[in-house]
Design goal:
Blueprint lengths: L2 H20 L11 E4 L20 H6 L8 E4 L6 E5 L15 H5 L1 E5 L6 H12 L3
Parallel strand pairs: 3-4
Antiparallel strand pairs: 1-2, 2-3
Length: about 130
């Protein structure tokens, strides 16, 4: 493990602790976690299939050194962050490989066949907030 990887894992541990404190207690609005989206590709024109370069969401880049469209990081206190990435439909659409894969050590990673949806995550949070029926 390189020094940069060790520093990154320490950074993620600090973020996990800060988010756990934010979700501790009753003042968090009843939320169980947060979903951080990486950002969307924006078409250059409605008449072509070219896109502007992705500018990831700052909260995403605070957690991950990835430049990937339509990915989601699910952060829940007491659990490893979960990275949900979209499968690239072709070689040309796949993102460049990252310089390090230390983020995979710090999170649970999964791939989806299509763009990720956070509906299941929000339904589970709503069910917990409403209590037993």
């Amino acid at each position: 493990m390189t020094e940069l990887d060790r520093l990154y894992l320490d950074h993620v541990a600090t973020l996990e602790a800060a988010y756990a404190r934010a979700f501790d207690g009753q003042q968090n609005g009843g939320f169980d976690g947060v979903a951080i989206h990486s950002g969307n590709l924006v078409p250059r024109s409605e008449f072509d299939d070219q896109f502007w370069p992705l500018r990831p969401v700052p909260h995403w880049q605070h957690w991950l050194p990835l430049v990937e469209p339509d990915a989601v990081l699910l952060v829940e206190p007491g659990r490893k962050p979960r990275l949900v990435r979209r499968n690239a439909s072709s070689f040309w659409e796949s993102p460049a490989p990252p310089e390090s894969d230390a983020f995979l050590q710090a999170s649970r990673s999964s791939r989806t066949a299509r763009a990720p949806s956070c509906r299941a995550f929000s339904r589970r949070a709503q069910a917990r907030a409403s209590g037993p029926s």
